[in-house]
Amino acid sequence: MCYINCVALSFHPHFYSCIFHPLHYRADLSTPAFSTPAFSVPLYVTPSVKAMLRRKNRLMRVGRVNEADALATPVNKIIVWNSSK
């Protein structure tokens, strides 16, 4: 690149491009060309399934495990049915 010229031209505007070009080049190499969503919900998790899972989690947190287990069976059936489409 132009490292030798940068020392001689330390007050010239070209100096900044000599320093920042390698930095930008390395940054471009290390960042992905595409972005992925941080969190995506699968298509088989419908709003009704989400509501049922929230209720099941709430029941588990308060210690009502039997009711949560009873709710888990229909949730599993719906998820299996939606994911097999």
Strand tally is 0
Global Rg = 28 Å
First-last Cα distance: 56 Å
The profile of the biggest β sheet is: none
Helices, by number, come to 4
Domain count: 2
Shape: elongated
Question: Which segments are poorly predicted (pLDDT under 50) over 5 or more consecutive residues?
Answer: none
Write the layout of secondary structure elements.
Layout: H1 3-8, H2 13-30, H3 47-62, H4 65-83
Helix pairs in contact: 3-4
Key traits:
2 domains, mainly alpha, 85 residues, 69% helix
Model description:
With 85 residues, this protein is mainly alpha-helical. The chain has two domains: 1-36, no CATH class; 47-83, no CATH class. The protein contains four helices and no strands. It has helices at residues 3-8, 13-30, 47-62, 65-83. Helix 3 packs antiparallel against helix 4. The model has no long low-confidence stretch (mean pLDDT 78).
